[in-house]
Model the fold of this input.
Amino acid sequence: QVQLVESGGGLVQAGRSLRLSCTASGSIFKINAMGWYRQAPGKQRELVATISSGGSKNYADSVKGRFTIASDNAKNTVSLQMNSLKPEDTAVYYCNVDLIDANWRRYNYWGQGTQVTVSS
Done:
């Protein structure tokens, strides 16, 4: 089994910054990719940013230039630095991990979600 623990959400004013973190633990052989998704009320879950084990990054157009994703492969962690936050960034943010477990099976896991609220 694998557990994902997220932290760092909260309430901030527009223009300020927040940093989200997610740590994966458990029966992990290799992490292929980690990422962040978000879901606003009444909307579908959408990709925010992903990073592969090789360091390739992918961002949603809406966050390019404002958000930065980073990972520490040795610690199985992924972070999301969010700068210049806007009210439209308000959502529940979910960590996602694509991994190979100790039994060589591939799984995709989701964190429990952390609320980010940006006030205008």
Notes: The mean pLDDT is 96. Residues 19 and 81 are 4 Å apart (CA to CA). The two ends are 41 Å apart (CA to CA). The chain is about 0% helix and 60% strand.
